[in-house]
Amino acid sequence: MPTAPAPSAGLGFQAIAGNRSDTVDVPPGYRAEAFLPWGTPLVNGASEFKDDASNTALDQARQIGSHHDGMHFFPIDVKDGGNSSTEGLLVMNHEYVDPETLHTRYAPQAPRPQQEVFKEMMAHGVSVAHILRNPDGQWQLVTGSPYNRRITASTPMQISGPVAGHDMLVTRYSPEGTSTRGTINNCSHGYTPWGTYLTCEENWAGSFINNDETPPREHQRYGVRRDHSRYYWETATPRSDETDRFNASSVAGTAAEDYRNEPNHFGWIVEIDPFDPASKPVKRSMLGRFAHEGIVFAPAVEGEPLVAYSGDDARFEYIYKFVSAKPYYQSTASGELLDDGTLYVARFNDDGTGTWLPLDSEHPDFKANALKAGVTFNSQADVLLNTRLAADVMGATKMDRPEWGAVHPTSKEVYFTLTNNTRRSELQTDAVNPRAENAHGHIVRWSEDQQQSATSFHWDIFLLGGEAGTHTANQRGEETTLTADNQFACPDGLWFDYGGRLWIQTDMSGALMQHGNFGNNMMLAADPSTGELKRFLVGPVDCEVTGVVTTPDSRTMFVNIQHPGESSPSGNFSSSWPTGNGARPRSSTVVITREDGGIIGG
Ligand code: FEO
Ligand code: CA
Ligand code: CA
Ligand code: CA
């Protein structure tokens, strides 16, 4: 992976004003162009995108998916130690669908037409796109490249780690409980030091129902529904095994005859080798099961354990840390490192210290806490299947919706967005979640005590979101007061570029954008070494800005624009970005370059 230039950071661009226009706006001297929008033909045999949304499920399975989210650029030569900034694999998540946009006509009621459900399943997942920069500076898709690949809600996958083969994973599809089909609700992502991509399953629980009298804790604690799923996939007609599996009720005699355990195949982090198009993605169960927003690795150090962080994006859920059992060696590192280790959950003490609490069925503290709580876990697999419950038992700190994390390339400090939590009452506030009815969110920061794998840390609040005048005084004695140039709310995407600039992306609700002074969702850049913070990009109407990465030379940036015109009634969309002129809105990547070819943000 690219090595970081010395983090001089510095924000050399002119901050732009917030606005409500249906465009992507960037500072003077910068260019922003839509690239790889939803429906772009990707895989051999793909059809052209049709603006009336009449593309079929099969078309969609070969086109770029919808709701672009987390994304990474892998230099084409990275496995040979190279660092190309002109050719690579752009790998991105497709989080979900707005059925009103995806279909020509949509009726949110049961039963759903099977072909519509299949199209929605094919629009989820991941795209691997082989891209290159022409001599004229334009980026293009390498059509016909064997690397181009779609991973969908149907792609066969393996399950690895402690939970693989557990009784609670047995289904009609996998009597062994070791394989599964597909990944859904792929929000943020991660990338490993050995050049693989990780996609994270966030709001998967809403795709399932279980109408048994007493659904198991593996379903209840995650919000598997009782009546109907988000898109009524379980009602697809004519019926098929592909869609019946979204009904996790006990309908047969044994787990091997029905899909009562299907929801237990979701909520994981999935490893994909983008350089091996025939490879089977692997769900790495050691990383825990929850509404995984994303995963971020601390810089790998030869001979030391590998450390990664992942947030559970729901109100009052937790932040987790994984420490590998085996040390990292560049020469032999692989996904197996993620199959064995310790998963911890964070407790943020009010005095600015913090503790990582082990979720380990053999650990004396864990055993004592479980006994005290009257909760039984029969194995480490049971702990991981019920990660949220295990974290409850350990008394972890309930956070204001943990979204993305980012690790500074040299200081190794960890930053995490806490997007909002309007349900926190005054009585429920604490030092790390200090605001009741937290509508604007904040960013927390910590450094591990001594080494990255330590079980204690020190934290402070880096930044509070809010309107101009919002003041943050962090524990280093630095103060920030937001102005018109950087007021923001609901931080979500977060990424340190190779020069140590922190990019912050927002996901405000429609109401906040309509009634607040923020304008549309945006991306800002921060220089933690100086406290500078400037608005860099404003997205189109009713979009969320999410997913950011640059080429190793920091001269091309890719940003994702998700769901412009979100949930508008069919035929009356609030956005027509990126095509304009009343066309159907499409989630899309944006390529950002500087007219002088310089460093983005510098
Ligand atoms: Fe999919 Fe938590 O954002
Ligand atoms: Ca997000
Ligand atoms: Ca969000
Ligand atoms: Ca979203």
Automatic annotation (TrEMBL):
InterPro entries: PhoX, TAT_signal. Pfam families: PhoX. It comes from the Bacteria. PANTHER family: DUF839 DOMAIN-CONTAINING PROTEIN (PTHR35399:SF2), SLR8030 PROTEIN (PTHR35399). Residues 567-576 have a biased composition (Low complexity). It comes from Aliidiomarina soli. PROSITE patterns: TAT (PS51318). Residues 564-588 are annotated as: Disordered. This is Tat pathway signal protein.
